Amino acid sequence: MILALVVCGIVLNAENPAAVPVDAALAEVNLAMREMTTFSAKFKQIKKFRILTSNIVLDGSIYINRSPFKLAWHIEKPMRYTVIMSEDRLLQWDEETADTKEYKFTDNPVLEMVAKTYHDILLGDFSRLAGECDIVVDKPAYAIKVTPLAKSNMSKAVSQITFIFNQNFRHLLHISIVEPGGNSTTIDFSEIKINGAIPEKAWTAGNDS
Fold it and tell me: What are 14-18's contacts with CB under 8 Å, separation 24+?
């Protein structure tokens, strides 16, 4: 899942002719995505394992509200599972236990760092990715590729993350995560709605969601 996202860094890969100066390109992405006040979509997440012939496929819905920030990630198939994130806490619910767990970021600095990274990336601010990764912005492909440096802690879990955007960099269409061992995860968004009303039940964790 996109929980693989942790703090990375920014440098220009000059060997890629499609790459452009990173600071300016990321500023353009940030400006374009600021037009997005809400985002809702269906998603399909596919986890591929190098040593297995079958994949894990998850289907669900995602909702994002820019201000105040709220993120809801509802897995609907093959099981029901929900994560709801706000500025200061995270709620987690799963159908098997029917329990809702609450985690306050003030009690968990690591979770707070991951949550802030989610917040920034999903809203178009990649500046938090600083110090541990190469970042290439491929404008013709509407893609941002993030490669952790060998010295970084992130490189132990992630080899590369690719973000694919729509043609004006206004919102994400696809996320691809490759792990060092050869496993990979892809997330594709469909039925995307920008700046539409989000139903109140989207922010509910449990049987009413």
Answer: 16/136, 16/138, 18/138, 18/139, 18/140, 18/141
Structure tokens of 186?
Answer: 């892809």
β-pairing, 89-94 vs 81-85, is antiparallel
List the alpha helices (DSSP H) in the chain.
Answer: 22-33, 109-122
Residue 181 backbone dihedrals phi, psi, to 5 degrees: -80, -5
Q: What pLDDT is stored for residue 130 in this prediction?
A: 58
Q: 128 falls in which pLDDT band (50, 70, 90)?
A: low
The pLDDT score that the predictor gives to residue 208 is 59
Q: Distance between CA 209 and CA 206 in Å, rounded?
A: 6
Answer for the pair 139, 20: CB distance below 8 angstroms, yes or no.
Answer: yes
pTM equals 0.82
Do residues 161 and 5 lie in contact, with contact meaning Cβ atoms separated by under 8 Å?
yes
